[in-house]
Amino acid sequence: MGMMHRCTSFALAAATVVALGCATGEKAASTDSARGSVAADTGARAAPAAGATADLSKFAGRWQVHTKPVSGRDTTTMTYVLTATADTTGWTITYPGRGAMPVHASVSGDSVILATDPYPSVRRKGLTVHTNSVLRMQGDRLVGTAVAHFKTNQPDSVIHSNTEATRVP
Predict the structure, then answer these.
(1) Strands (E), the chain
(2) pLDDT at 154
(3) Contact residues for 101 (Cβ-Cβ < 8 A; gap 6+)
(4) Closest Cα to residue 83, out of 52, 44, 114?
(5) Under a CB-based contact definition with an 8 Å cutoff, are residues 109 and 47 in contact?
(6) Contacts of residue 160, Cβ cutoff 8 Å, sequence gap at least 6
(7) Which partner from 2, 140, 153, 162 sits 20 to 30 angstroms from 125, CA to CA?
């Protein structure tokens, strides 16, 4: 009875831990999704339902992007052109009057996650910024969120924005 009892007890304990972990994760994901919150470090939302995967060929092309901060003193809309490819290589963003900058693209569920290397800020002259964005197809538009991280010791070093893009011919 000793060895068999220990194995059965261990199996029951492991199953309980897994079940509780899954239930907790689902509750946290649904709570984050319901609030529409953005993870501070990545700019990513909770993962979508299993099975939904972004088809990058649908993202391929040029997009006119409008991103507007959701709060703060400066809520002016910034625009840039996003050039996307059918895979995760060769993506760029181009602000008016600037050259194209590479952007790192990856897929998570039905979303594309974009991350830039640090670059001179368009919004805050004299500061360096890097951004993280999450975009998904919604009809014929891209919609999502962006987080700009400014390199500064001053307050307001992060800006959260809503993003929308339309295809450019």
Answers:
(1) 61-69, 78-84, 92-94, 101-108, 111-116, 119-120, 128-138, 141-151, 158-168
(2) 78
(3) 92, 93, 94, 116, 117, 119
(4) 114
(5) yes
(6) 38, 69, 70, 71, 145, 146, 147
(7) 162
Contact of 126 with 37, CB cutoff 8 Å: no
Task: Count the neighbouring beta carbons within 10 Å of the beta carbon of residue 90.
Answer: 13
End-to-end CA distance of the chain, in Å? 74
Q: In whole angstroms, give the CA distance from residue 108 to residue 30.
A: 16
Say if residues 48 and 109 touch (Cβ distance below 8 Å): yes
Cα–Cα distance between 71 and 85 in angstroms, integer? 32
How far is residue 154's CA from residue 68's CA, in Å, rounded to a whole number?
A: 21
Count H helices and E strands in the chain, helices first.
2, 9
Provide the whole-model pTM.
0.68
Task: Report pLDDT for 22.
Answer: 36
Q: Which CATH architecture has domain 56-168?
A: Beta Barrel (2.40)
Bin 22: left if φ > 0, else alpha if -120 < ψ < 50, else beta. Answer: alpha
Q: What's the average pLDDT block by block, 10 residues per block, for the chain (169 residues)?
A: 38 32 38 36 43 83 97 92 96 97 95 96 94 96 97 85 96
